[in-house]
Structure formats: structure tokens, C-alpha cells
Amino acid sequence: MIRFSLSGLKPSTLFRVRGGVHPETRKFLSAGSAIEAMALPALIRVPLQQHIGAPAEPLVKQGDLVLKGQLIGRARGPVSANLHAPTSGKVIAVGHFPAPHPSGLPVPTITLRPDGEDRWGPRLPRLRPEDAAPEEIAARVAEAGIVGMGGATFPAAVKLNLRGKYPLHTLILNAAECEPYLTCDDRLLREHAEEVADGAGIMARALGVARIIVVVESNKPEAASAMRRHNLGMGYPIEVKVVPTQYPMGSEKHMVKAVTGQETPARALTAELGIVVHNAATAHAVHLAVRYGEPLISRVVTVSGRGIARPANVRALIGTPVADLIAHCGGLSGEPEKLLLGGPMMGQPIANLRVPIVKGTNGVLALSPSETHRSAAMPCIRCGSCVQACPCGLTPFELNARIQADDLEGAAEVGLLDCVSCGCCSFICPSNIALVQGFNFAKGRLAEKQARKHQQEETKRLAAARSAREEALAEAKRAAMAKRKAEMAAKKAREAAEAAAQPDGEVVK
Amino acid sequence: MKLPQVASGPHFHSMFNVPRTMVAVMVCLAPATGFGLYQFGWPAVLLFAVTLAAALIFEVLSLIVAGRPVLPFATDGSALLTGWLVAMTLPPWAPWWVGVLGAFVAIVIGKQVFGGLGQNLFNPAMVARAMLLIALPVPMTQWVAPMGLKDGPGISEALRITFGGGPGYDAMSSASVLGHVQSQLDAGRPMPEILSSMASLHDQFFGLMAGSLGETSALLLLIGGLCLVSLRIIQIVTPLAVLGSIFLLSGAAWLIDPEHFVPPLFHLASGATMLCAFFIATDYVTAPVTTAGRAIYGAGIGALIWVIRVWGSFPEGVAFAVLLMNAVTPLIDTYVRPRIFGRTRSGKPLPLAASAGEKP
């Protein structure tokens, strides 16, 4: 094994990624605990939008009885995802409930009261991926409502259908899990490596690629060795690459750079290089959906932080309230300074413990003040730490200065829109300046400005088109009038000529 | 539970902050300073204390005048560090008002007038040093031989030296090694003869000679600087660029004409060079932010130091070299930028074919 892990770190097989930071990972809090099941919660709340794209269309109404795995929300449009009942029970409301988002705004949600029997409805029909066409596999993944489970929640089937558009050759399975605290993918690989490998094989078949690379950070040797034991998925060989523990190694484009040396051009997709990146947990969900017809109704969530009495990795139903998850892990120990969904670098703070977890929730963290190291913001001292840390080659302090001066176009000129909001700059800033906060604000403002500008231009264009149309109409009328006038004049002249030619005759009409 | 602050990530932070950084720099300066204080005795201790106290007082006064919060800024350690750096460059037995004046120039004119922490264009300690060198050429060039804390003047004698006014001691008027060499060269003596009449390279490196309060021991400054590098507070590139460019230029000149140029090791063994390379040129506020920019900046400082030492009329070139390069920093930062991920240096997206061609 040692021989393998050394060869995995050989510089010749890896490429340097600029910048990044090395936060304390604190994965030891939950890395040792196996994935556990939890009791059915009293209520389950399934938001209709848990993915990037359009919200699903609800198929049930209040009072309906549903079975586990039953379709309760249908994807609307090409980029959307199906929703399934996580357990059997009664729909008690199809209404609005606070979103698992910092805003806490009410969003359309189906609320379900489990009946406690957890009775499966009919599963999706069996599919033998070895015999199935790639389209069939992608369709099954779409049917099962699978989205990217690393947090981005992009519908997985859309990415599996890129086969026709780009010449693909490699599938990268992202199990880097570079966010501190999170251990759900680590545990999944350790305990279900065979299933993840199979899922990866199924995805490779759907994509039509022959090369599969699983990328694991060097602080998860057990996960890497488990994947090496199961290095064949559907007959496709699986390479395991161990990358240095460095945040944000899990960022799609940076991972592609680290593993293949290819740098994705700005504003392009990795697919244009022939590489598709999927999360390891997504592969596991694909395995369940294709082999067993199980839609995506549960996921592994890491519940951790010093504010949690008993940190653990839990397989929880989608829609489980955060409060139930925390209660399962022994409750809160003391008042947490921060309560987060996701990791500490890019996760979302939440205000309400009753919000549900969704398909993209990989962690529930309760951080104590001793973990956050928060202190008051000071002026920038130009130390350049942010420039050294930025994995995108930006100058965050300069972006911040321009945004503070309300020079958004200036900020865009020096690369604001190339920022991936990974948080390295804010993390390292000795003056504790909330850089990413400012960037997100500026990106929003810029998008709004551009939308307004676009709208204005469009209005202007339409108005111009209309006046041109009216002008053309008037012109046509004038022309017709002139033509008629000319005709009349010609006729008159002809008549006059005729009358002159036969002075004694009557005018013939 | 209380409502959390709605904010973008990251939701936790590295251990580093401004006060810790400043304290780390002061700790790394401590060995060289302590050695200087020991060598030059109680007058040096008094001058050091007066300068630091004055820096802190001027900082607080400026903050009050500017209407800014006093506590967070006065305790961030930056004023103390500036005062410390000013004190290190003073002649150890200078009267108290030289230190106070230096602290005033550094804190008020060099830093607070520009808007306080992080806003100054020029290194405050070097502004003070340059100003004192020009305005007070006599007190700024009166040196004493190192005597040690015990053999030197006692406390009452020291109080008289620092606060009593007037040099009541045997001042050596030219202590700066390189200044001495220049004046001797001007007098027409050949280089080997001058070198043999001076403190040995060994004594210079260890600091067993007359000089500024904290600049005598190049070795201790080097050790402190390497500690800063290992703590990742400074990048090694800046000191390497400063020392490298001095070494290359002086080495080349010396090889061409050993009769008229000082050997490169004499430049490097000077404490002022080491202090500049590790503690002055690496000042965050006034240096460029990128690695390449820092290399250019450091090389520029090194070259200017050598030029001023060889052809300038001042015995020491560090302050002027740093100030000149400070003025170039905004220019360097504008043109020397990192390449944005996925883009070419000119800001266009990378061509697809080219990046696909890199396929291993």
C-alpha cells in the first residue's frame, strides 16, 4: 500500500495548482465514525427546488398518501430534477417553508408526515447497464432525480448527456473533499467503494469514455486504498490519484489541472477538454438508481463541529429537519457561534433549525467560537497573502478596493468574474476583511446592472424597430398614394388626348 | 439560539491577524536589538524606550485627531514596530529628542498623514531615517565603541548622556564601515590598505564594532529574518533579491577594479543591509504584492543601495534606496500581476487547442 500511495504523489503524475490554503481540517472529529442510519423524523419537508435550474412541478396535493420512492415532483424544463417521496406517509401540505439558505425565505415545499412503515412503492424498472444504451442510462439518472452531490447540485443527467456535444475521453470522480470537517465522501468510499466503482463504471458507459480517475486528497489514505481494492467498475479500469491536501483541490477546474495538467479556458467547460467531473456520492446514487431502481431519497451527511455533542456521519432522508439530525448526534453542546449547511469555507449559515437538508447538503456544522477565530476587520495592510492564496490568480485586495469605491466595472476588468468564491483570500486575510462577501455582492450587482442594460438595449431596439416599421408603413402608403395620383394623372391625360383626337365623339367610359 | 450573522463563507479563519504578525516581527528583531542594547549600554536602552514610547504616544494622538477608534489601532502593534525600527537605526548614544523626532516623523508624517495603517506610500521608519540623516547630520553620525552593559556608563551617567544634552563622551565621528572606506578612498589610499585598517569582516558580521543601535550584528539580523521566513510571514524572494543584486553588482565591480571597489562580502556583512533585506524591504504596506513584483522591487533596492554607497555622498544608502523603490511600488503592482486561471497573460481565455495540446 505504501508503494502505491507514494506513486500516487509522484510529481510526474501530478501538476501544480497555484495558490490555495491549508486550513485545519478537523476531520478527525467524525472520520472515525461509520455511516449510521437514523430514526424516521416526525416531519419531512421536500423543497421543490434542490438543484440548479427550474423548480420541480408538484404532483401531489394535501391529503395524498404516498409511498417511499414515489415521484412527487416532476422536472420542469431541460435543467431541473425529479423529486421522490423519501418515505411513505401523508402529504400534509404543499405550500411554503423557509429555505435551507441564509435568507430563510419561504420557498415552495412539500411537507410529508411519515406513517412509520417506510413502505416502498414500485421501484424504477430494472436496467442492466451492461446492455443498456448510454441514452437509457442517462434517462434513468434523470428519472431518479440525481444531482451533483458535492454541493453544486447540477442535474447529473445533463452532464451525462454531453457525449454527443464534446469528444469526451475521461471521467474524473471527485472524492477530494477538500472542505474541512466533512467526511461523508471519505466514509462512503471506505464503506461502499465497490458500489462507487460500479456507479463510476455506469457513468463512464453513459459518457462513452474509457478512462476513470478517482481523485482523493492525501489525508484520506483509507478511502484511497479502498478504491484501489475496487479498481474496476463495469470492466473499466479505475485509476486512483492521491492529490495533496490543499483547499480548494475539489474545485472542478483546479482538480482537472492538478490531475491532467490541462487548464480549462475561462468561461469554458471541462467537457471541452474531454473531461467530465462528477462527485463520488453522485456515482453511488447512480449505482443505486440503475442497479436497484432507487431514486435519490437519502444521502450521507457529516454532522460535526465542536458544537455537536457526538459528531457523526449519518445517512439521512432528503428533507430531514436539521434539528432532528443534530438531536440524533446528541444535540448541541453549548451555544454555537455558527450553524452551517455544507463546509466551513463555502457553506451557508442558517438561522432556523427546522429547515430541511436537501440533495446537496453534505454537512451540518455547529462551530464554537474557539474554531472560527473571528476578530474585527482592520484596514488592508497590502500583505499580499490574498494574492498568494488565490487559486484563480486574482488580486483580491485590489478587487475589494475597487468594489469599495463602487467601481464595479473596474473590478470586472481585473477579473471579478473569474472569482470562484472559494474563500481562500478571506480565510488567510490577517486583517479579517470579508473579501468574498464583497465579491459576491459585486457579482450580484454587476449581473443586475447587465440585466438592466440588456433590458434597456432591448427596449431601445424594439422601439427603434417599431418606429422603423411605422416609418416603412407610412412610406408604403405615401408611395401607394403617389402611384395612384400618377395613374389618375396619366388616365386624365390619356382621356384628354383621346378627347382631343376625336373632337366630335363622346367620351367613352 | 441567536440569529447568526448572514455572511458569505468562509466561516472560519486562519490563526494569523495583524497584531500577531507585528508581534512575530518584533520577536524576530529582538535578538539583534537585545545584542545592540547590551553592547551600547544604558544610554541605548533609554533611547530605545523613549523612541518606542514616543511612537505609541504619537500614534494615539494622531488617532484622536483623526477621530478614529484608538484602542484597536493603537494595540495592533504597528506603531511599536515602526518606533522599534526607527530606534534600531539611531546612533546608540544620541540624545532623547532625536528619538522623539524620529518617532514623530515616522508616525505622524510617514504614516498617519497618509491615512494610517496600510495607507502609507513610503516606509515610515525609512522616512524618519532619511529625514534625520539630512536634517541632523552631526548627531546622526556620532558613534561610540561597544563597551558592554557593565563596563559602560551607569544609569545616572546614562540619564545624563541621553537627557542631559551635549555629547559628554568620546564620539567617533565615522563608524559606518562603508562610509569610512569611501572617505579613505577619496583621500587616495588603495583599497587593501584601507581594508586592513578596519574592523575585520568577522567582527562586522558578528557586530563587535561601533554602529547604529540595532544594526551592528548582521548575523543576529540574518537569524531573525530567517525565522520570519520560516514562519511564512515574509517570502524569501525579497531578501534574496536585495542581497543577490548587491552581491552581483559589487562582485562584478570588485572583479573589474579591486583597487577602487569594496569586496562584496563587506556589503553583505553590514547590519544595515541585513536589516533592510529582511525587515525593511519586506514591509507589507510599501512593497509590491506579487512574488515577481517583490523580486523586481528587492533587486531595485539592492542596486540602489550599492549605487548610493559607491557614488553617493551619504555614508548609508538603505533609506534612500527603499524610499525610491517605494515610489515605484504602485507601478510594479499595476504591471506585474499573476496570470488569471484559464486566461492568457493578456486576459484572453486560453485557446482550447493549445491547452489540449498539453495533454500528458
UniProtKB/TrEMBL annotation, chain A:
Positions of [4Fe-4S] cluster 1 binding: 380, 383, 386, 429
Comment on bound cofactor: Binds 2 [4Fe-4S] clusters per subunit.
First-tier enzyme category under EC: translocase
Binding site for [4Fe-4S] cluster 2: 390, 419, 422, 425
Protein origin, superkingdom: Bacteria
Gene Ontology process terms (BP): electron transport chain
Keywords: 4Fe-4S, Cell inner membrane, Cell membrane, Electron transport, Iron, Iron-sulfur, Membrane, Metal-binding, Repeat, Translocase, Transport
One GO cellular component term: plasma membrane
Gene3D superfamilies for this protein: 3.30.70.3270, NADH-ubiquinone oxidoreductase 51kDa subunit
Record-level Gene Ontology MF annotations: 4 iron, 4 sulfur cluster binding; electron transfer activity; metal ion binding
Family note: Belongs to the 4Fe4S bacterial-type ferredoxin family. RnfC subfamily.
Protein name (Swiss-Prot/TrEMBL): Ion-translocating oxidoreductase complex subunit C
Organism: Alloyangia pacifica
Lineage: Bacteria, Pseudomonadati, Pseudomonadota, Alphaproteobacteria, Rhodobacterales
UniProtKB/TrEMBL annotation, chain B:
EC number(s) given by UniProt: 7.-.-.-
UniProt keyword Cell inner membrane, yes or no: yes
GO BP terms in the entry: electron transport chain; transmembrane transport
GO CC annotations on file: plasma membrane
Keywords, ordered alphabetically: Cell inner membrane, Cell membrane, Electron transport, Flavoprotein, FMN, Membrane, Phosphoprotein, Translocase, Transmembrane, Transmembrane helix, Transport
Places the protein is found: Cell inner membrane
Assembly description: The complex is composed of six subunits: RnfA, RnfB, RnfC, RnfD, RnfE and RnfG.
Protein family per UniProt: Belongs to the NqrB/RnfD family.
Name of the protein described by the UniProt record: Ion-translocating oxidoreductase complex subunit D
Organism expressing this protein natively: Alloyangia pacifica
Gene name in the database record: rnfD
